[in-house]
Amino acid sequence: MKKEQQGHIRRDLKTRHLSMIAIGGSIGTGLFLASGNAIATAGPGGALVAYAAIGLMVYFLMTSLGEMATYMPVSGSFSTYASRFVDPAFGFALGWNYWFNWAITLAVDISTAALIIQFWFPHAPAWLWSAVFLLIIFGLNALSVKAYGESEYWFSIIKVITVIVFLIVGVLTIFGILGGQFIGFSNFTTGDAPFNGGFFAILGTFLLAGFSFQGTELVGIAAGESATPEKSVPKAIKQVFWRILLFYIFAIFVIGMIIPYTSPNLLGGEATDVAISPFTLVFEKAGLAIAASVMNAVILTSVLSAGNSGLYASTRMLWSMAKDGKAPKFLSKVNRRGIPMAALILTTIVGAMTFITTLSENGTVIYTWLLSASGLTGFIAWVGIAISHYRFRRAYVKQGLDLNALKYKAKFFPFGPLLALVLCILVIVGQDYNAFLHPDISNPEWWQKIAISYIGLPIFLAFWLIYKFTKKSKVIPLDECSFDEHSYVDGKRD
User: Fold this and answer.
1) What residue ranges are annotated as transmembrane (predicted)?
2) To 5 degrees, how large is the angle CA 412–CA 415–CA 420?
């Protein structure tokens, strides 16, 4: 499809870009840092069960998204699919909620990157580094979509190489080839291992694992600017299962084998605690003295990658909604390089203003609430993918279309999207299960804690209901869903 047919955005993302964007979406601080906390909480066996369950859910979600994105590659992704196959109000709420999430978390990423770099430059002001990183991320997104894709490709290459080296070093350490001592399965039988804390510990790890996989849906948005989406999207989606198996399940297995779940160092989990990253601990156990510096650099690239992708995804989502009439029209403008600059600038400004709130004492409170409001957005987007695909396939069959004509067909329908939907809802409902296990309704702090954990839900519902009542939208009957992919390219008739 020519770039003019795509509202002048440029389909310059190659297959290798899309594959690495998908990989980058699933490897980040959730693996490098939070995995240690997961093992400490539920034991090595409990962590493996939780990450395997979430990994299966993510795999089904990505196959669902892959089927729709291959058939209809648009930058609006699941927001567009929800508008076409469920209800325009549902798509409106998903789009604005997703944009809001990434605009807010952009501030988190530049703040975290500044703290990480103080490992080397402890006396430099953090705000200055945050400003530098924001300018770099903005520049990569403003230059061209190819610049974004290329930067993500190399960010992801660094993460992939790190994990592969870690796995090799870890296996050698387990067998005593490095570190000088055969470890074997001894740490899988320490104390209550392999399972610690029972069902609720695994549930808590389940939630943690869910956050670790946030961002895998970026491949659906990037499909709108893929040069060959019919080839690139299926290839990227098919790799999801093996990435999860290799990078998460095997990595957690190696960590659990080498470091006992009782180790207090595993409870680190903050981005600034690179010295107690489980990856750092394993490298040090193998006798690699420069482990902390290397992992600090890798974690820095992970955070910058998250900010880079977040700005890209939110910009494209905002632009797509503007094309669909769900956002101000001026945001739909695209420059000569195929970049929606108005949407990019607005998103960057919101991210920068959110960051500025962290510099004052009162602003920190506002920032905490904003961050909490965005906390459930990724899971809500996943719910939207599952529901949209379920109705996409049902409408496709109801209208007598040939399933064999689909260039990529998700396996295990309807089991896949329904299982993913149930697990997503479980994650959302169980966001703060501890508060419900020990209710204290007379305590204002208990209610505040509940509000912070679940505020994302009423915000999403508010977006949905406002659109529904102002536009009088209704759930689209299955036989009225439009499958003419050429008549609806990013919200504009071809």
Assistant:
1) 20-39, 45-62, 99-121, 127-145, 157-178, 198-219, 240-259, 288-313, 339-360, 366-392, 412-430, 450-467
2) 110
CB burial string 15-30: b at 16+ within 10 A, e below: bbbbbbbbbbbbbbbb
Question: What are 134's two structure tokens?
Answer: 């924001």
Residue-range domain boundaries for the chain: 15-473
Cβ pair 157, 23 in contact under 8 A: no
Would you state the pLDDT for residue 470? Answer: 93
| Integer Cα distance of 12 and 467 in angstroms | 34
Residue that is written with structure tokens 């893929």 in the block: 226
Q: Check: CATH 3.40.50.880 for 15-473?
A: no
Joined together, the tokens standing for residue 213 give 């996989």
Amino acid 181: pLDDT: 79
Neighbours of 456 (CB within 10 A): 23
Residue 141: which of 359, 363, 338 has the closest Cα?
338
- What is the spatial distance between Cα 46 and Cα 266, in angstroms, rounded to a whole number? 15
- pTM, rounded to two decimals: 0.89
- 3-state SS, residue 333: coil
> 3-state DSSP: the chain helix, strand, coil percent, rounded to 5?
75, 0, 25
For the record, the structure tokens of 16 come out as 């290798």
Confidence at residue 444, expressed as pLDDT on a 0 to 100 scale: 84
Residue among 464, 491, 448 at smallest CA distance from 72: 491
491: left (phi over 0), alpha (psi -120 to 50) or beta: left
Enumerate long-range contacts of 202-206, CB under 8 Å, 24 or more apart: 202/42, 202/46, 202/49, 202/50, 203/50, 203/430, 203/433, 204/41, 204/42, 204/433, 204/434, 205/38, 205/41, 205/42, 205/46, 205/47, 205/50, 205/51, 206/50, 206/53, 206/54, 206/426, 206/427, 206/430
> Which structure tokens are listed for 132?
């530098």
- CA 191/CA 196 separation, integer angstroms: 9
| Structure confidence at residue 428 (pLDDT) | 86
Residue keyed to tokens 């064999």: 404
Convert the pLDDT of each residue in 150-203 to its tens digit.
998 898 889 888 888 999 999 999 988 887 777 888 888 888 878 888 888 888
CB atoms within 10 A of CB 494: 14
Task: List the structure tokens of 325.
Answer: 């009439």
Would you give the DSSP letter of residue 23? H
Question: CB burial class (10 A; 0-12, 13-18, 19+) of residue 264?
Answer: exposed
> What is d(CA 82, CA 85) in angstroms, rounded to the nearest whole number?
5
Low-confidence ranges of the chain (pLDDT < 50): 1-7, 487-494
Cβ partners under 8 Å of residue 151, min gap 6: 140, 308
